[in-house]
What we know:
Order of helices and strands: HEEEHHHEEHEEEEEEH
Distance between the termini: 72 Å
Amino acid sequence: MTVWTKTIAQLGLVLCLTNLAELAAAKPLDRRYALKERHAIPNRFQRVATAPAEQLIRLNVGLEHGNFDELERQLYEISDPDNAHYGQHLSAAQVNDLLKPTEETLASVEEWLYEQVDPSEIESSPAKDFLSFTIPISRAERLLDTKYFCFGHEDGSELIRTLEWKIPQHLHRHVTTIQPTTSFLRKAPGNTTSLKTKGVATQLKTVNTSAAPAECSTRGVTPTCLRKLYET
């Protein structure tokens, strides 16, 4: 083997080892970030500024229910006068047991969240179908691969929201919603708390249920209800 041939063989080996190292370091395709939701700016809103990186935001992550179909079936039964189970209402513990996510869903989402959020800072609903935590907007942007902005409404109020957000592809079937992100919830009269950070006003809003639209008259919160509430 000539010196030239030996050199070429060594270079090929180096390139091969380099490619193998890059493949090993790369994330599996299903763990790469992919768009989960995108929404246009709603009517009567306009983008006015970039959200302050240090502003705290409380995120609520909704998880896929483990046995919602069974819950729905039982609710129909106890509501049907002709059914043997009519009037036998479920306890809170029974409802939570049917709503709780599967172990796979909870473990997958928690593994991802722990990359940006201290586990001790995460609170869960009784059914563990919602995980909530407060972090700076800069960390929320990294978590969701997005950018938050301040949006002004024509009535003078402002909200911090984003127009799209992403999560790893393998989590799309486990996560049903993350808010506040793309939904622009409007305040009910008299139910607004304002926070100001370096001149940016953030509205923390609650919904006046007495003024809720007909689409929200069901026991659960549906996408149609959310769109009505958020005027989108």
